[in-house]
Design goal:
Mean pLDDT: 84
Low-confidence stretches: 18-36
Shape: globular
Number of helices: 7
Strand content: 15-25%
Strand order of the largest sheet: 1-4-3-2
Order of helices and strands: HHHEHHEEHHE
Number of domains: 2
Radius of gyration: 23 Å
Structural class: alpha+beta
Distance between the termini: 70 Å
Largest sheet: 4 strands, antiparallel
Helix content: 40-55%
Amino acid sequence: MHTQTTPTTRITKTRKAALAALLVTTSISLTTIVNAQEHAPPAGLDDLTVESTRAMANELLTQLGQTLKSTMSKDGPEAAVSVCKEASPSIAKTLSSKHGAQMTRVGTRVRNPSMGTPNPWQKDALAKFEHRLAQGEPPASMEYWKVVEVDKGKRELHYAKAIMVQPICLSCHGAASEIPASLAEKIRIEYPQDQATGYSVGKLRGAVVVSKPLN
């Protein structure tokens, strides 16, 4: 049986197609807006909070980096393994108390479960960093920002700054087959649950993360 196509039918189909296209476009636009909000400081966040949050993250990275580099240059990577285990949590705790925030490092693969295991929002930040890197975004200035309501009338800022694998990192985080036996044994003793090997330069190692209450 042949069904006749009338002008009204054609108009209805055209409208349906236009509506479907509009829904797709709107969905893409909303996703773009959400992503842009997470890439940049949220609207309404004052400049002082933005800059102080960045400064806190950089302070943690700087102190950790200087401690590790100093130890490695004087005593080698095996000593740095122990220093990293003890110094990293201590530095993060001291700075958290100093700034009235929760500060730490988290990894895409965890070496120290007591410090480096990401919680749900931190996993989301790491996943978005991986996606943005795949899209060709430069990692140097890669950040994640989000303001969430943690209780009625109480808001919290979630911030993450990407940490990339540098050549110095490969001593302890490179391919397992290329880590010297004595160093691998040291890592096994200090971190029996270690998963943080197999990286190469330029890959995402993790992030320094900050959670702090907003007035």
